[in-house]
Amino acid sequence: MKKVLIINSSARITNSQSRAMTALFQENWQRLYPTDHFIFRDLGINPIPHIDDAWIKASFTKVSDRNAENQAPLALSNKLVRELKEADIIVFGLPMYNWGVPSGVKSYMDQIMRINETWKFESGEPDGNYVGLLSGKKAYILSARGDNGYGCGERNEHMNFQSKYVETIFRIIGIGEIETISLDSEEYGGELFQKGKERITAMIKAIK
Question: Where is the Flavodoxin-like fold domain positioned along the sequence (predicted)?
Answer without folding.
Answer: 2-185
